[in-house]
Amino acid sequence: MPTPSPEIQAFAAGFPVFLLHTTVTVAILFAAAAIYVLLTPHKEITLIRDGNEAAAVSLGGVLVGLAIPLAASLRASTNVIEIGLWGIVTVLVQLLVFRLVDMILRGLPKRIQEGEMSAAALLVGAKIATALVIAAARS
């Protein structure tokens, strides 16, 4: 049987690592999103099920805002322990900043609950902006 090409050997060696790193990062993302949903004063999932577009936009912004620093951590990390540690740290910082943004922009959660898209857009912008700053700080 002929020896596989170097490209096939590299893929065979790297694919399990890719799967492990991706799985750890996605698990942190889902856990962070669940924690965020539990911390918010309004129940996004219920609002979304009831057709509240502002809640859907807001929660979508949270997911992107959480994913940005996680992606930076994944990019800068070299092993699964480092991904886990930095991923958790960046998510904790991001969740803290999200709560601060919610407190500074008082009244927005209630306005989102009432379906106001302008409030959701502002909240998404603030959360993505903080995500980019945290991601840059991690890199």
Description:
It contains 6 helices and no strands. It has 139 residues and is mainly alpha-helical. It has one domain (6-138). Helix 4 (80-104) runs antiparallel to helix 6. The model has no long low-confidence stretch (mean pLDDT 88).
Task: Write the SSE topology.
Layout: H1 6-39, H2 44-49, H3 53-76, H4 80-104, H5 108-113, H6 117-138
Secondary structural class? mainly alpha
Shape: elongated
What is the number of helices?
6
Strand content of the residues, in percent? under 5%
Question: What is the share of helical residues?
Answer: over 70%
- Mean pLDDT across the residues is 88
Radius of gyration: 18 Å
Tally the structural domains: 1
How far is the first residue's CA from the last residue's CA? 44 Å
User: What are the segments in which pLDDT stays under 50 over at least 5 consecutive residues?
Assistant: none
What is the element string, with H for helices and E for strands? HHHHHH
Largest sheet: none
Number of strands: 0
Summarize the structure.
This protein has 139 residues and is mainly α. It is 84% helix and 0% strand.
